[in-house]
């Protein structure tokens, strides 16, 4: 038997990178996984590769969320898990940042998580409970230059705790995961000099694979974490210790 046998799980930002790794691992552990993204071509190919379903989802759109959740419940009769993985990054700081960029990052990283939790909760309650995993960041636990990204990820940390308190009585657990330097496009786009400088600060001396984050997510989705809610699980090799 798999750790997630027959669970119906929705993962956002799942076309590639960390989201795709989470989706693949969930499938391997027995879950029925729905991959969601705005990159339709890549998302369909990723889903087809693992025998799963792909749906278009702009996480900043409440109507998109309603349509996706309704379609999952109509097809599968339930929804047991959500991984709010979709996110974007901007390196802009306070003095050089634009309002448009700030609002766009907040719309995706913060509002998207809020809308996702709000959209899936009724279905999870109807299913007898569930697990929501919000992907924050080490940037959701300490400050650095990227002001919009930091603001959004601190918000995810706080919203997770608020939702965990409100939904516990319904059997819905809500937790956050805080990755550090993970081998994805988001890290590589920083440039080698910045990456090297970041890795010099990691006590374990290396970046993590996307699977190392995915394993933590699988734990939170499963009954192994049945008494874990409102927690912050850091996956950073000791970066912010």
Please provide a written account of the structure:
The chain is an alpha/beta fold and 241 residues long. The protein has a single domain, classed as Rossmann fold. Helices cover 46% and strands 15% of the residues. The chain is built from eight helices and seven strands, in the order βαβαβαβαβαβαααβ. Strands 3-2-1-4-5-6-7 form a seven-stranded parallel beta sheet, sandwiched between helices. Helix 4 (99-126) links the parallel strand 4 (81-84) and strand 5. The longest helix is centred in the middle third of the chain and has 28 residues, at 99-126. The termini are far apart. 48% of the residues are buried.
Keywords:
241 residues; alpha/beta; Rossmann fold; seven-stranded parallel sheet; 8 helices; globular
Percent strand: 15-25%
Annotated CATH architecture: 3-Layer(aba) Sandwich
Structural class: alpha/beta
* Unreliable sequence segments: none
Question: Level of helix content?
Answer: 40-55%
Total helix count? 8
Largest sheet: 7 strands, parallel
Global geometry: globular
| Tally of individual domains | 1
Under CATH, the homologous superfamily reads NAD(P)-binding Rossmann-like Domain
CATH topology: Rossmann fold
């Amino acid at each position: 038997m798999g750790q997630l046998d027959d669970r119906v799980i929705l993962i956002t930002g799942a076309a590639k990178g960390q989201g795709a790794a989470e989706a693949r691992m969930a499938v391997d552990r027995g879950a029925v996984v729905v991959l969601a993204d705005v990159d339709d071509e890549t998302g369909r190919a990723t889903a087809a590769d693992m025998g799963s379903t792909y749906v278009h989802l702009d996480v900043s759109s409440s109507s998109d969320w309603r349509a996706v959740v309704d379609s999952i419940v109509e097809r599968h009769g339930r929804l047991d898990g959500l991984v709010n993985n979709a996110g974007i990054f901007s390196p802009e700081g306070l003095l050089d940042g634009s309002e448009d960029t700030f609002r766009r990052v907040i719309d995706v990283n913060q509002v998207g998580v809020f809308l996702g939790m709000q959209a899936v909760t009724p279905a999870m309650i109807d299913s007898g409970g569930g697990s929501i995993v919000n992907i924050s960041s080490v940037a959701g636990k300490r400050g650095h230059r990227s002001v919009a990204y930091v603001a959004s990820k601190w918000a995810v940390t706080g919203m997770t705790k608020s939702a965990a308190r409100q939904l516990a009585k319904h059997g819905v657990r809500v937790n956050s995961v805080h990755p550090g330097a993970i081998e994805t496009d988001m890290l590589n786009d920083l440039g080698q000099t910045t990456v090297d400088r970041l890795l010099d600060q990691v006590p374990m001396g290396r970046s993590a694979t996307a699977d190392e984050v995915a394993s933590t997510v699988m734990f939170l989705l499963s009954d192994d974490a049945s008494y874990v809610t409102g927690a912050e699980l850091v996956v950073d090799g000791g970066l912010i210790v």
